[in-house]
Amino acid sequence: MRRTLLSLTALAAVAAHPAQARTEVHPYIEASQTFLANLKGGAEDVLTYTSLAAGVDATLQTARTEVRADARYEHQFGWGKRAVDSDILSGMLRGRYAVIPNRLSIEGGALATRVRTDGLSSANGGSLITAGDSVSQLYSLYAGPTLTTHVNDLSVNAAYRIGYTRIEDDVNLSVGGIPAFGVFDESVYQTATASVGMQPGPLPFGWSVGVGYDREDASELDQRYQDKWIRGDVTVPVSATLALVGGVGYEDIKIDQRAALVDNAGNPVLDGKGRLISDTSVPRLVAYNVEGLIWDAGVLWRPSRRTSLEARIGERYDSMHYIGSFTWRASPHSLFQIAYFDRIDSFGRALHGNLVALPTDFIAARNPFSGDLTGCVSGQNGGTCLNDTLAAINGSNFRHRGIAAQYGWTGRRWNWGAAGGWSQRKFLAPRGSIFTGVSGAHSDYYYAQLFGGVKLDIASSLGASLYGNYLDAPVGGIDVTNYGAYTTYNRQFGRHLSAQASLGLDALDTTAIDTIVNLLGQVGVRYTF
Length: 529
Fold this sequence. Notes:
Blueprint: H1 3-6, E1 22-40, E2 46-61, E3 65-79, E4 86-100, E5 104-116, E6 135-151, E7 154-167, E8 186-198, E9 206-218, E10 223-237, E11 242-257, E12 259-260, E13 278-279, E14 285-304, E15 307-316, E16 319-331, E17 334-346, H2 347-357, E18 363-364, E19 376-379, E20 382-385, E21 397-410, E22 414-428, E23 442-455, E24 460-472, E25 480-493, E26 497-510, E27 516-528
Antiparallel strand pairs: 1-2, 1-27, 2-3, 3-4, 4-5, 5-6, 6-7, 7-8, 8-9, 9-10, 10-11, 11-14, 12-13, 14-15, 15-16, 16-17, 17-21, 18-19, 19-20, 21-22, 22-23, 23-24, 24-25, 25-26, 26-27
């Protein structure tokens, strides 16, 4: 289905360079002091936190192994009644091991971070510090083998992935305490693909035949997603740089779930954590069931190694279907990518896609005040943005359409980048269920980020970020606007000791509460072993 090629999350921020063998493991400890002053709305006081943290940055690159890990545990000691203590576990891991070089490999990835789960999940900036009990810990991981080989002129490919995603202590995801789209708890996602084909050369055209099976089992109302497909694709070269592409096949997608238990008044019964309870006395309800012919046709344009464009139009999901991507590496130091996507998605499957798109040389941009990972992640060979996935966390499946772009430039002293996008979720729900009123409802999410840094001298550097996002949720949700900026100065003292100072501004504006504007500051020291 060409999901890898056209995946929106495969957005790179910097240019690719050949990997060199190296092993670097840098454990560290850190102490910092953070303050938050309310400038508008909310409580008119100053919150202060003392933080102690321990973490590790590790990179391993050999002829067979690529591993990148950035993990951190932090405990915040709050000063005052509103500044509560909290434990923060955050990190990313991406790895690949070549069992048989250039043929069989095993890869995996993992993510740990915190998100807001009070209906303001798109506000994952500095406001995480003041969210209190409305912040939940998120975990996600996946692993699986990939086979890529040749039999004479035939290319043979196969892959299997299994992923798991969980949100701990997830409560009150919607206004009024009634989960409008269901509350996400945990899910297991499995995907298997296989294909055989031939590049143009032996024949005047290239061809491939592929099959795939996807399944996700989510705990909320025992929800189940299944997608089975088979298709054939052809590539017809028109010139040295242009080819016509197309494919046709058959697909069967079904989403079903248990009915929610209701009381005598018809209201849903919730458990102690605010989640729905399944009613096993009635048959399963079908939220989405589409099968039949799928097809698409388009063009593939590659005028040079640095530029690539693919665009397709066709029919899928019982409607017209459009996808496309453009990549331009203007120089060895820069990369621009933009993509339009259209798929049936869920929170668990979308986050799985983010992890698969992580490069093995990523640089995780942490929020300096909370340490969380909620924005874009870049690397020399790719990247991913978590903004859209974490913007509206719920237990429903949805038609997911959108566009996203990212540009990055890196030099000896300066580096900068920008990212932005729009996405729409159109929710899928069974008829005759408590979700009937939101079936077909949609939400729109917009985000933008500008970031950069400069090495002032051999021992000091300065970085900054400007961000903004808007969630328009007309049914069962809250319109949320979150914007802000921060800058960080870092100074190295010898090989092991460094100090940093950060200053930021974060604003939160919603239809449920008055606008809140916070000023944040932090100073800290780190010792790297």
